[in-house]
Amino acid sequence: MDPKILVVDDSMVVRTHLKRTLVAAGFEVIEAVDGVQALEKLTEEPNVILVVSDVNMPRMGGLELLERMRQVEALREMPVLMLTTEAQIELVKRAKELGAKGWMIKPLKAELLVATVRKLMAAKAA
Ligand SMILES: [Mg+2]
């Protein structure tokens, strides 16, 4: 099976946009609506190699998801790209401390997203 990207956002509009962009760039994508579902999908789907996650979501947000992933051996090294609607400096700092590999502000530019995803994947493969 091919490597997949897990897109996590409580907004269906954003998920659809992300999925369409990444699929058009040749990636396989699965979706989750929040951190809780993301952790479930990461357990069910061993082929996920990158997570693109929103910060503000009900039940479990992106920072807690990141924190939980760092506590699981199999998920500890997985690159995570965080998305938010604003450049909240404290959030960015915290995400970096938790090992987020990138940070992007919504609305996302498709080319920039694809370029960043490719870079993270190349870094992981190296
Ligand atoms: Mg949100």
CATH topology term: Rossmann fold
Question: What's the CATH class, please?
Answer: Alpha Beta
Can you tell me the residue ranges where pLDDT is under 50 for at least 5 consecutive residues? none
Strand order across the biggest sheet?
Answer: 2-1-3-4-5
How far is the N terminus from the C terminus? Answer: 20 Å
Which superfamily, in CATH terms, is the homologous superfamily? Response regulator
Beta-strand residue percentage: 15-25%
The major β-sheet equals:
5 strands, parallel
Order of helices and strands: EHEHEHEHEH
Count of individual domains: 1
Q: Give the helix/strand class.
A: alpha/beta
Q: How many beta-strand segments? A: 5
Task: Determine the fraction of residues in helical runs and give it as a percent range.
Answer: 40-55%
Rg is: 13 Å
Mean pLDDT: 93
Number of helices: 5
The bound ligands are: magnesium ion
Which geometry do the CA atoms define?
globular
